[in-house]
Amino acid sequence: MLLCMALAGEWPLCAAAETPDEQKARIERLEQAVLAPCCYSEPVSRHQSEIAVKMRLEIAKWVAAGKSDQEILDAYVQKYGSRVLVDPRTIPAWWTPWIPWLALVFAVVFGFWLLRRWRAHPLPAAPAPPGADVTALSDLDEEE
User: Fold this and answer.
1) 80 with 37: CB under 8 angstroms?
2) Which of 17, 24, 36, 103 has a CB 3.0–4.6 Å from the CB of 52, allowing a cystine?
């Protein structure tokens, strides 16, 4: 690549000298960097709407034509606004999907601990109802 720049001195020739694997990697990276403008919820690489399919084809065509990544991203920003770009600050961290599962595990462990504790220390029994063996007390009003 450096040899190409040194000999030709022109950037477009170097961009055209990309191998198919490099072009494929650029296409995948660009598809991950642009959101589908129909809902702005998923990158173009995963979204299955008609506009996302069209954008994937455009990106592949522009990469093959030798456009730079910035030119391609600028074209989409001009057409759809800056909201179309994936902002790395809005992508959830790797651990975010694990939070509900961890909460479930902690709840189950806490539930088992609580049941075990209740079985080990049962609540005191309610007092027995008066039966035949209990003598009845005389009424205080009758003594007068």
Assistant:
1) yes
2) 36
